[in-house]
Amino acid sequence: MSYRDHGPDWVELGLPWREDLVGDPETGVLASGPIISLLDNATSMAAWVSQGEFRPQVTLDLRIDYLRAAARGKAIVARGECYRLRRTMAFVRGLAHDGDPSDPVAHATGIFMLVHGDEWAADGRDRAIRAEEK
Predict the structure, then answer these.
(1) Is 128 exposed, middle or buried (0-12, 13-18, 19+ CB in 10 A)?
(2) Of 13, 89, 99, 106, which residue has the fewest beta carbons closer than 10 angstroms?
(3) Cα separation of 88 and 112, whole Å?
(4) Angle CA(71)–CA(99)–CA(63) in degrees, nearest 5?
């Protein structure tokens, strides 16, 4: 997986075709797992660039729809976009293609729960205080 480009609310990643990622040796079609990982990473990173910083987040929902098999020997490109950012959630979508964005291999939609650092810290302090009281 490699970084390709990004903008204020999107990230583009690439995945070169490799034989060890093939799901069907007869056809040379990539397995679904690497494409899922690529879309998950691209959409997750799109949420981060939309916020302007890295913050912990949790995947609430990620749906991947496969539209066709990827072409043998071609790299996959995934572009993730954060189209709506709220205080606690980022709404994302993405496409994966093998050279032509108008003919995608897969489409993704998802929601990430944004976890603010002070919420993590407060929870950790509360557990530490309760442990000391025992």
Answers:
(1) exposed
(2) 99
(3) 8
(4) 75
Task: Give the pTM.
Answer: 0.83
pLDDT digits (tens, 9 = 90+) for 42-87: 999 999 999 998 888 999 999 999 999 888 899 999 999 999 999 8
CB proximity list for 104: less than 8 A, separation 6 or greater: 67, 68, 95, 96, 97
What distances in angstroms separate CA 22 from CA 1, 29, 71, 126, 128, one per listed residue?
15, 6, 11, 47, 47
pLDDT tens for each residue of 70-81: 888 999 999 999
User: Are the beta carbons of 49 and 6 closer than 8 angstroms?
Assistant: yes
DSSP 20: G
Q: Based on the number of CB atoms within 10 Å of its own CB, is 45 exposed (0-12), middle (13-18) or buried (19 or more)?
A: buried
Tell me the domains of the chain and their CATH numbers. 2-133 (3.10.129.10)
